[in-house]
Amino acid sequence: MALVYVYASIIAPPLLQASFWESRRIALRHQRQNPREVLETTVRHGLPAETPHWVVETAAAIAPLGVIRSVHLPTPHPTRLVLLIQDAHGLPEVQHRLANLLQWWAGHHRLRLIGLEGSSSRFDLEPFRQFPSPRILQDVARHLTDLGLLSGPELAGLTTSQALTLQGVEQPASYEQHVRLFKRLIALQAQSRTDIAAASNQLQRWRSRSSSHANPAEPAQQFFNELVSDLALLEKLVALRLTPAEWDLYQTRRPFLSQWPQRLASLTQQWPLKSDETLLERSLPLFEQFYEAAVHRNRWMTARLLQAMRDEQQPLAALVAGGFHTPGLERELKRCGVGFLTVTPLVSHVPERY
Question: With left for phi above 0 and alpha for psi between -120 and 50, is residue 140 left, alpha or beta?
């Protein structure tokens, strides 16, 4: 896949790329003549059978770069549409594909406005775009992206023939609060992980000397299983790696999670620490605030993107944000009556930290 990307986006000349997309359009026009083939194409791209043809065509065209994960269209051709692109921060491969996705939409659907997580201001790229050698500019921009010094939207903004507006959509106070929380939590992670490890060891010792694990229906074994699951949630909470679905689950389990030392002691009768000496228990509200702040940022990012679309008179915009924000941003866009396509760039290798 990486070799295909290098060939299609760097080595092959623009004429070859244009010919490739034109052949895809011709093939899709033939498919539209056969409803069964259209249905098969739709299912192959994981889209509902009632998906409009133009979305199916888009899914087929961007297949080498990314996948359309979800579609919400208040009408078949909404007056406002957001391309919601899931970012994977720090992965150059994803940033290159993200840039190509934005370039494709700029060339085929007149995308001009890109909203960005992590910033509240507009990016002024025009002085760099005026560099006299476009080829050198492209080579340098791609190299800086490989080094992790440029993001995909910045790469697209520097190298796309059409001028793109890169607009930060964060509310400064909300974002800065989130950053402050992050810095505080980094200092608490090591001891909190130690608390979790001690609790896990205590559970395993209880299990090794208990006969109830032979019968999963035993109340003690069920209680044990709940504690194991809750500690796994706490471990991911402390590592700041909860997915949106796991955060939703965490919130339903919050009354039980807040009492985990007492629950552990009631099972093992050997918990060696007093609850007021457990750093994790004291710091749980801070870790929870981190995720609550992320959800709060979704509202601001949506509102500021829609305001930018009104100010720039753009019916189409992209919003590039980390995957954790996706469900919340989708909910906010639905609430505002705005159509969206959620796109995940392809990646050939995902590091363990993701």
Answer: alpha
**Closest residue by Cα to residue 309 from 154, 157, 169:** 169
CA 240, CA 236: separation in Å to the nearest integer?
6
pLDDT (tens digit per residue) in 87-130: 988 889 999 999 999 999 999 999 999 999 999 999 999 999 99
Look up the pTM and report it: 0.77
Residue with tokens 């790229």: 125
Write out the two tokens for 150: 């440029």
- Tally of CA atoms within 13 A in the half-sphere of 225 that contains its CB: 11
Closest by CA to 79, choosing from 347, 281, 337, is 337
Asked if residues 177 and 293 have their Cβ atoms less than 8 Å apart, the reply is yes
pLDDT (tens digit, 9 = 90+) per residue, 134-164? 999 999 999 999 999 999 999 999 999 999 9
Helices 244-257 + 279-312 axis angle, to 10? 140
Of residues 224, 221, 197, the one with CA closest to residue 278: 197
> What number of residues does the chain have?
354
In 3D space, the residue among 329, 131, 334, 354 whose CA is nearest the CA of residue 239 turns out to be 354
In one-letter notation, the amino acid at residue 189 is: Q
Give the integer Cα–Cα distance in Å for 171 and 236.
Answer: 27
The answer to whether 235 touches 195, Cβ cutoff 8 Å, is no
Strand, coil or helix: 75: coil
The one-letter code for the residue type at 338 is V
